[in-house]
């Protein structure tokens, strides 16, 4: 055990002292904070208003076309139409809308028209035509507008502790983020283990290390050392993201405004905070955090053992492709199944994929925000632990032989021999 600890310490210190680790640890929170803040900031800046030149012959759409934040309609005479069709790029208009009758609409522009602009124009024209047909049918539009009643259905979760407010949108968002993070971390740190094995093998350093420790101890030490690197970086990302986000939020407001409107802002923040608590009331946050930590480590340990075996079986990273694909297919499949699982978190597909060790790290994290029974969670955790032990045992057999093999490309037949070798 002491030797494994020394390898863990070596793997950890080598990686955390690298410039790439320090740079990514600092850049990661900045990028995360930018993703959180920039969309809100840009939305506050408003949209660019685009002028649409409108020419119509035998219709009266212009009187009913209402301007919006994005579009401003300007009716033009016939004399300007031919000029705009030839050289609209030098005009103040973004596009020319030519309406010949109630069925023929053409949009001219010197560039590809934005999809959102095209859809907005189509919706406006469709609404005008719909109102015209309703009038012709003798239907009172005012009565029709009054009959449009918005409905919002409140969801209540009835559990062992009583009733709590549910929020499907929040559960969906949390499930998606958890699945994406687990997927990214397993791939990122799993490939880090594989590259480390390949580097030591090609540089022949492993021959010196193997003289002092067993191959299994070396593999486990490397896996656990990189796991600690991942946890360190992850915790630093969370801490720095919160700090940077808080400072950036303060910079968005003027100091005098903060001083004069402190009372109003505190009330608004308390309302926002209470709404956030209400939104996540139906989600067991402590359980979610503990489960995320476990499935992050469990999924990483399971896959990193396989990545280490792949690294030991080849002499160069370019040769890993034939072995990486079978290893990562369950991981990629889990990522693809995230959307169907979120649509039906209690279905048969969701149930079985959350129990299978190769898919459970992502699928179970996707299911948890929607509610999972303790029995299913315990079964999933137990199977993941057993899966890790099984894959580690198989990977160790490949590792102990492959780590000292040079100059020969391993095949699946060769790997099978290593797995079945007794000695």
Characterization of the model:
With 423 residues, the chain is of the alpha/beta class. The chain has two domains: 2-31 and 166-420, no CATH class; 50-143, 3-Layer(aba) Sandwich (D-Maltodextrin-Binding Protein, domain 2), CATH 3.40.190.10. The protein has 17 helices and six strands. The protein has helices at 2-16, 19-44, 78-87, 115-136, 141-147, 168-202, 205-210, 215-251, 255-260, 262-279, 285-313, 321-336, 338-343, 348-353, 360-367, 374-402, 412-420; strands at residues 50-56, 71-75, 95-99, 105-108, 155-159, 162-166. The strands form two sheets. It has a four-stranded mixed beta sheet, with helices on one face. A two-stranded antiparallel sheet has the order 5-6. A hairpin with a 2-residue loop joins strand 5 (155-159) and strand 6. The two termini are 22 Å apart.
Helices and strands in order:
Blueprint: H1 2-16, H2 19-44, E1 50-56, E2 71-75, H3 78-87, E3 95-99, E4 105-108, H4 115-136, H5 141-147, E5 155-159, E6 162-166, H6 168-202, H7 205-210, H8 215-251, H9 255-260, H10 262-279, H11 285-313, H12 321-336, H13 338-343, H14 348-353, H15 360-367, H16 374-402, H17 412-420
Parallel strand pairs: 1-2, 1-3
Antiparallel strand pairs: 3-4, 5-6
Helix pairs in contact: 1-8, 2-8, 6-8, 6-11, 6-15, 8-11, 11-12, 11-15, 11-16, 16-17
Summarize the structure.
The chain has helices at residues 2-16, 19-44, 78-87, 115-136, 141-147, 168-202, 205-210, 215-251, 255-260, 262-279, 285-313, 321-336, 338-343, 348-353, 360-367, 374-402, 412-420; strands at residues 50-56, 71-75, 95-99, 105-108, 155-159, 162-166. The protein is an alpha/beta fold.
